[in-house]
């Protein structure tokens, strides 16, 4: 795989000019996700209005993959019903794990991360922002206002488990 | 040690043909291996020695009376003698472990757990690899001993002005790296040991980088314990060494229990074998020990003084070339005095993992991360660095390739 396949122009563009960057003043929930293995971290603020994402912002630092992916994620989920945002998060997770082909209609600029899916060690970078979104959505639905998640060496596994858990909780939440 | 400038440096072209892996292509480009501080590559002589052992001499060691058992035992004990000679240790006090980490744990548990009392102090340094830090934390927790650390100055060297204040009558152990795996800094272990001994403390030197690159001896360091690992010194993974002062090892109780380490066993008790076997429970990694002996032979044949001179020159060249890269900041001494070829750096605007990824696309292997030295990373306010590290087979052309690729990384991300 060539460098251009991995670091596609669109990823570098998001890395250099992250969308929805910064802290959200009137966030319903703010979560901090940190990967101590590589030092990638971000604080994600989410404001919900009803069951809709009214605003989202990410303040982070780390590699181009983690920060670029988080930026793409904010564009994709902003304005969506939470359940749809979570569907996209799940689609992106499956895409990164090579379980499905990327659908541009669902993942938009996220399809640019196809090269990352071939590098197991970088997959957790691409998932960091998406995990944070999922975590924030679940916490906001549960009425929590903040959260802290630190990934261990098995970050991908624990992140996947966290997403499964989050999805189940979100489903339960939407039933109520 | 002979003055470096007086010794003819080893020419890497002499040794490169001996390392099969160096002719590999990575993504269609020649491998540029700059990760020797993580693990060195292996010369054909090491591969042959291990292959030969398994093809012709393999048997379990020490108790067999058949011919193969005698040959295997002779090969294993011969390897011990050969390696002991290389590091200036007594053969009786040269213990095989699986790596340096296990060797440090051996001392922490077999000596530390039985000798440390509540309120005793263990002195480490801020630049230790986790291997020479976490075992002491574990034993401190079990004994109530306290852990203190010699700080690292802005010049990336130990702040020895703090040493007198840190050494107290309660200091029982000073555990210090002979050469930092991140900064390349060569620590003045002998001077630290003299002060530690005067204060009544023992000294353990982590020579995992120093033995392969400097040919360090336990006597030269003035240490009571010295550890290193085989795989960073051209040997295989799976064998490490603890060298010690004989009388200390003689006085110590075992670390791991099992076969080989006993003299006699009753159902409810046992007595211990002589050193070094008292500390070698279970079947050892015989082929790995044989491989490490072949590695030590190889280094001796190349000449450690010539290896040192070559790395000294190349480190100077690399520091000069890296200084030309915009936005590059070196974490380590800027001069080559008492410094080895571990070149840790950050590149402004590019995350270390992205740097390593971009370099890999050019066939260049470097390390990115915290290098198992998180307190040191924190000391300098970074979560990760990129590290290029040299060995006797590294060429100036490879440093040039690194510098070119770093320029490309910067252009791509900023």
How many domains would you count in the coordinates of chain A?
1
* Low-pLDDT ranges of chain A: 153-160
- Gyration radius over CA of chain B: 22 Å
Mean pLDDT of chain A: 87
Largest sheet of chain B: 7 strands, mixed
Structure description:
The complex is a heterodimer of chains A (176) and B (414). With 176 residues, chain A is an alpha+beta fold. Chain A has a single domain (3-164), classed as Sufe protein. Chain: A. Chain A contains seven helices and four strands, in the order ααβββααααβα. In chain B, a hairpin with a 2-residue loop joins strand 1 (25-26) and strand 2 (29-30). In chain B, helix 4 packs parallel to helix 5. Chain B is globular and about 70 Å long. Chain A binds chain B through residues 2-3, 6-7, 12, 15-16, 37-40, 62-65, 119, 122, 125, and chain B through 350-354, 357-358, 361, 368-370, 382-384, 412-414.
Short synopsis of the structure:
The complex is a heterodimer of chains A (176) and B (414). Chain A is an alpha+beta fold. Chain A is built from seven helices and four strands, in the order ααβββααααβα.
List the helices and strands and how they pair.
The complex is a heterodimer of chains A (176) and B (414).
Chain A: H1 3-6, H2 9-16, E1 29-35, E2 40-49, E3 52-61, H3 64-77, H4 82-96, H5 104-107, H6 120-141, E4 146-150, H7 155-175
Parallel strand pairs in A: 1-4
Antiparallel strand pairs in A: 1-2, 2-3
Helix pairs in contact in A: 2-3, 3-6, 4-6, 4-7, 6-7
Chain B: H1 12-15, E1 25-26, E2 29-30, E3 32-33, H2 44-57, H3 67-86, E4 94-97, H4 100-115, E5 121-125, H5 134-143, E6 146-150, H6 163-166, E7 171-177, H7 189-198, E8 202-206, H8 210-214, H9 218-221, E9 225-229, E10 240-244, H10 246-251, E11 262-265, E12 270-272, H11 286-302, H12 304-322, E13 328-331, E14 342-347, H13 352-360, E15 364-365, E16 367-369, H14 374-379, E17 385-389, H15 396-413
Parallel strand pairs in B: 3-15, 5-6, 5-7, 7-8, 8-9
Antiparallel strand pairs in B: 1-2, 4-10, 9-10, 11-12, 13-14, 14-17, 16-17
